[in-house]
Design goal:
Layout: H1 6-20, E1 36-41, H2 54-71, E2 75-77, H3 87-96, H4 100-117, H5 133-147, E3 149-158, E4 164-171, H6 189-200, E5 205-215, E6 220-222, E7 241-250, H7 256-261, H8 270-280, E8 283-293, H9 314-326, E9 336-341, E10 352-355, H10 361-365, H11 368-383, H12 386-391, E11 399-406, E12 413-418, E13 430-433, H13 439-448, E14 456-457, E15 471-472, H14 483-496, E16 500-505, E17 511-512, E18 525-529, E19 535-541, H15 572-575, E20 576-578, E21 584-587, H16 595-598, H17 601-604, H18 617-623, E22 628-632, H19 639-652, E23 665-668, E24 671-672, E25 676-682, E26 688-689, H20 691-696, E27 702-707, E28 712-715, E29 718-721, E30 728-732, H21 746-753, H22 755-764, E31 772-773, H23 776-793, E32 807-808, H24 814-832, H25 836-850, E33 856-857, H26 858-868, H27 873-882, H28 899-902, E34 906-913, E35 916-924, H29 929-938, H30 940-946, E36 951-957, E37 961-966
Parallel strand pairs: 1-2, 1-22, 10-12, 22-23, 24-31, 32-33, 34-37
Antiparallel strand pairs: 3-4, 5-6, 5-7, 7-17, 8-9, 8-11, 8-16, 10-13, 11-12, 14-15, 18-19, 18-21, 20-21, 25-26, 25-27, 25-30, 28-29, 29-30, 34-35, 36-37
Helix pairs in contact: 1-27, 3-4, 21-22, 22-23, 23-25, 24-25, 24-26, 26-27
The chain binds one RNA strand of 89 nucleotides through helix 8, strand 9, strand 13, helix 13 and strand 28.
RNA sequence: GGCCGAGUGGCGGAAUAGGCAGACGCACGGGACUUAAAAUCCUGUGGAGGGUUACCUCCGUGCGGGUUCGAGUCCCGCCUCGGCCACCA
């Protein structure tokens, strides 16, 4: 009895594809192909848990596109690999004592087996892991390129894509030196060091001693992107504190403008572009300088608080006059406080100033009377973790420094405070506070009873607390100007007076690129040591010929609770060396973050076995950019921003041919667990609770019980028990999680229904990009469909697998032809739109119709098998073979549809009276408006509705509908 | 709090470009086959009301308005849910 048996068919074809190398892709386009298509999945981190059902969602989508494209004659690159460095493997290793390399290899094996089981058409000959020495050798090499590059924002050039650009990453050797360093002849030793330090300060990869996000539980520092808003780590949710440490940073901020501007032309979801735009956070405003009163001589202000000095103070006048001549300096004088504002139009409303507690000016300006309070506040802030800072429920805190500054527009003398709501890392680390038109300033002013002056007229409502645009008031000669105009005018006026200038700021910070981990790429760097064995701050790169710097074999890589990286207790011979010039060297013992490997893997897939280069230029030019990239939205600002940054540096340095790596991006939606129906009871009384009551009742007091879907019935907005309609039932789908016990394992699905059914179901669930709950009976539904397809071809009563007698070489009927061509057209267009759920429903309709025919013309069934192939490749290959083909259908031609076949001679159209459907009539397809109206009027049921009424208008859209407007 | 997205049967979801709301699948009901079950096949299924049978009427795409001959689709104002970011001056 040859029933549909995926467990016989699927391994058979997977073996065939493997043996014949069906999906091995040469870098040269084979004859007959029409252009390349690079389709990429976000390669997985091979965790110990194995594949979950979220992986095959995106992977099936790309696989369908690839299989379709091959049949359309495209030369398709579809690779897979492993993003295998990272914390989980290392933590597992620490727990179990197994080397991370061992667990990583095991996990990769599991993942690979699972992916192969699903029949994806990857070119496995291109497989690699980011942990392979032959791969991370080039990750290190790219780091060296970053290290060798500085960003010249003024440089104008034409890229390999022919576009004129401004701003370029250039070799550090081309960095112009300041006059003091660019002396003629061979520089002396001191100058050489000075030059090196000058260059180091401009490189895209640089060291800094800065407060970083230190996570004691994970034993590492984290990038800003890896710390959640509540101050805990993205991985594990551990507390994170601020701590100064020497770290490697990547100057991604240099590329902020290009990362922002070049988003525009990408075929990415607008939501993801917006996320990146917000993350980069460009704002345009002005820098404005405020002279500090008496700052040159703290505690001895030339004027006293409360003095009426507006516009008359001698120091202020002298300074202003000086600025009028000398202009706005790149860095302000020591007694000047520079602020950044996006609302220079509110300058007249500035009633106080706030500097970040870490601001260097604080020491100069704090008065003796306020000194103790200021120091105490600074000490407390420094100790505060981000968690504490945000957990304070936004209660504003701060301390008066005792100092005052003059508002440059009106000479008004205003107090300077310190407060932690001003961040040292943004803008100038200081603000002018305009409480009337800024929420945060208002909250602060109210807490500390500072004056509030409104300077913007709200066109609709109160001025105080109004942060929108309006008309200027209380602003001297600027009164009456609309906000936008005011901004332009005052920015220009300040610039002319040497008191301010237009300024752009970005929320984006430089990327903290070092981690205190064992299981990551070592930096290809040596530190120079001085005679005492201390770091000098100068580094040397490992020569390209000596790459890779491999991880040393170590037994113990457990963090010691200090920021000392595990590599710092690596074997001596790994750790130390002496340079040919006699300098003692110590390795950089930090390692790279997990993002490093995923920043460029798509380039390596083009040319994975190249030992000479990270990618061959001609091969890169052929395959890049990635035409379609599918993965989860969780990488919207991390991986996708970092890769774009690296790619642009490589582009600037001439190593890649495109400015952007990923032309089209699609995010798959998360798959939730099955919808759960629950009733709640009070633990002590046993009384039923409504879902809302259960929500309010404390944890241990509620018993929740799952009930079957069939025991539940809809009532009003919600659900109730069938047996007892007074009991309300909660219906909800949750994220899959081990603790909830609702995880679906792909292995189980394949074991029961086969890979084709799993693939088909995941595509049939709904739109790719949407969040959707799993449904076990939905899987059975598509399995039944596949079995129906099977029986459309195969005689199940025969002894062996043979074609059903109904499958015959007979000419199809007109109706059969039409359905076939409609199906071809719909499926083709749906694949192009990635609308796989509707493509599948079209194939179901075809099957429903054709199983009812006898005979079933082979001329219709053969193309159908090809349509099905991208979705359910195993059963399609099996049926293709059964139909007498020796070759795999992988490279068979995709069926074409004939528009002539779709034309109907007669169509049914709706007839409306006053917009309400009152009947349907059949009309010739080519009937014009008048003819359609005539046929509709002749229809008895329509006549009944028109009887006794006056027709005042008739709308007839040919091929669509007729509507009578009557009175 | 800000931004983005989404609300359509019991459920997942369809519906070019404003033109027959609910394709396809699930679940459920009825029937056939069977000793029986499974499997399969046929068939019904948005709600309410009416009718003698193949039928008719009204209501219906989160809520309230608007534009239009005609609105799930466009506009205005709300509500709810989901996601992301949250002191960025």
């Amino acid at each position: 009895m040859p029933r549909y048996d995926p467990h016989r068919i699927e391994p058979k074809w997977q073996q065939v594809w493997d043996d014949r190398g069906t999906f091995v892709t040469p870098n040269k386009p084979p004859p007959g192909t029409t252009g390349k298509l690079y389709v990429l999945d976000m390669f997985p981190y091979p965790s110990g848990a194995g594949l979950h059902v979220g992986h095959p969602e995106g992977y099936t989508a790309t696989d369908i596109v690839c299989r379709y494209a091959r049949m359309k004659g495209k030369h398709v690159l579809h690779p897979m690999g492993w993003d295998a460095f990272g914390l989980p493997a290392e933590q597992h290793a620490i727990k179990t004592g197994t080397h991370p390399r061992v667990t990583t290899d095991q996990n990769i094996e599991t993942f690979k087996r699972q992916l192969k089981m699903l029949g994806f058409s990857y070119d496995w000959s291109r497989e690699f892991s980011t942990t392979d020495e032959s791969y991370y050798r080039w990750t290190q090499w790219i780091f060296l390129q970053l290290y060798d590059t500085w960003y010249d924002p003024e440089y104008e050039w034409t890229g390999p894509d022919g576009q004129r650009r401004r701003g370029k990453g250039r070799p550090i050797a081309e960095l112009p030196l300041p006059p003091s360093l660019s002396q003629a002849g061979t520089p002396d030793a001191t100058t050489t060091v000075a030059i090196r330090r000058y260059q180091d300060a401009h490189r895209l990869a640089y060291q800094t001693e800065a407060p970083v996000n230190w996570c004691p539980a994970l034993g590492t520092v984290l990038a800003n992107e890896e710390v959640l808003a509540d101050g805990t780590s993205e991985i594990g949710g551990h507390p994170v504190e601020r701590r100064p440490l020497r770290q490697w940073m990547l100057r991604i901020t240099a590329y902020a403008e290009r990362l922002l501007a070049e988003l525009d032309d990408l075929d990415w979801p607008e939501s993801i572009k917006l996320l990146q735009r917000n993350w980069i956070g460009k704002s345009i405003g002005a820098e404005v300088d405020f002279l500090v009163d008496g700052a040159s001589n703290p505690g001895d202000s030339v004027s006293k608080p409360g003095d009426s000095v507006a516009g008359t103070h001698p120091d202020f006048h002298a300074w202003k006059a000086h600025r009028g001549k000398s202009g706005f300096p790149p860095t302000p004088e020591p007694n000047v406080l520079r602020v950044y504002t996006t609302r220079p139009d509110t300058l007249f409303g500035a009633t106080y100033m706030v500097v970040a507690p870490e601001h260097p000016l604080v020491d100069r300006i704090a008065t003796p009377a306020q000194r103790a309070a200021v120091d105490e506040y600074r000490r407390k802030t420094a100790l505060k973790s981000d968690l504490d800072r945000t957990d304070l429920a936004r209660e504003k805190t701060g301390v008066f420094t005792g100092a005052y500054a003059f508002n440059p527009v009106n000479g008004e003398r205003i107090p300077i405070w310190i407060a932690d709501y001003v961040l040292i890392s943004y803008g100038t680390g200081a603000i002018m506070a305009v409480p009337a038109h800024d929420e945060r300033d208002l909250a602060f002013a109210q807490t500390f009873h500072l004056p509030v002056i409104d300077v913007v007229q709200n066109p609709a409502g109160d001025n105080i607390g109004f942060t929108g645009e309006g008309t200027a008031i209380h602003s001297g000669s600027y009164n009456g100007l609309p906000t936008a105009e005011f901004k332009r005018r005052i920015t220009a006026d300040l610039a002319a007076a040497g008191l301010g200038r237009e300024a752009v700021n970005y929320r984006l910070r430089d990327w903290l690129f070092s981690r205190q981990r064992y299981w990551g790429e070592p930096f290809p760097l040596w530190h120079e040591l001085d005679a005492e064995g201390n770091l000098t701050g100068l580094v040397r790169t490992v020569p390209e010929s000596e790459l890779p710097v491999t991880l040393p074999e170590m037994e113990d890589f457990k963090p010691k609770g200090t920021p000392e990286p595990p590599l710092s207790w690596a074997p001596e011979e790994w750790l130390y060396a002496t340079a040919p010039d006699g300098t003692r060297l110590k390795r950089e013992t930090n390692s790279m973050p997990q993002w490093a490997g995923s920043c460029w893997y798509y380039l390596r897939f083009c040319d994975p076995h190249n030992c000479e280069r990270f990618v061959d230029p001609a091969v890169e030019k052929y395959w890049m950019p990635v035409d379609l990239y599918i993965g989860g939205a969780e990488h919207a600002v991390l991986h996708l921003l970092y890769s774009r940054f690296w790619h642009k540096v490589l582009f600037d340095r001439g190593y890649v041919s495109t400015p952007e790596p990923f032309r089209r991006l699609v995010n798959q939606g998360m798959i939730l667990g099955e919808t759960e129906f629950r009733v709640f009871k009070d633990a002590s009384t046993g009384r039923y609770l409504s879902p809302e009551e259960a929500e309010r009742t404390p944890e241990g007091q509620v018993i929740s019980e799952r009930v079957a879907e069939t025991d539940v019935v809809k009532q009003g907005e919600g659900f109730v028990l069938k047996a007892d309609p007074s009991v309300r039932v909660e219906a909800r789908a949750y994220k899959m999680s081990k603790s909830r016990g609702n995880v679906i394992n792909p292995d189980d699905i394949v074991r029961e229904y086969g890979a084709d059914a799993l693939r088909l179901y995941e595509m049939f669930m709904g739109p790719l990009e949407q969040v959707k709950p799993w449904s076990m009976s939905g899987v059975e539904g598509v399995y039944r469909f596949l079995a129906r397809v099977w029986r459309m071809f195969v005689d199940e009563r025969a002894e062996t697998v043979t074609l059903d007698a109904a499958v015959q070489d007979v000419p199809p009927t007109v109706a059969q032809q039409r359905l076939l061509h409609k199906t071809i057209k719909a499926v083709t267009e749906d694949i192009e739109k990635l609308s796989f759920n509707t493509a599948i429903s079209r194939m179901m309709e075809f099957t429903n119709a054709f199983t009812g025919y006898n005979p079933r013309p082979r001329a219709c069934l053969e193309p159908f098998v090809l349509l099905l192939a991208p979705f359910a490749p195993h059963i399609a290959e099996e049926l293709w073979e059964l139909l007498g083909h020796d070759e795999s259908l992988t490279y068979a031609s995709w069926p074409a549809w004939d528009e002539q076949m779709l034309i109907e001679t007669e169509i049914e159209i709706p007839v409306q009276v006053n917009g309400k459907l009152r009947g349907k009539v059949r009309v010739p397809a080519e009937a014009d408006a008048a003819r359609m109206q005539a046929i509709a009027e002749a229809e008895p049921s329509i006549q009944a509705h028109l009887a006794g009424k006056q027709v005042i208008k008739v709308v007839a859209v040919p091929g669509r509908m007729v509507n009578f407007v009557v009175r």
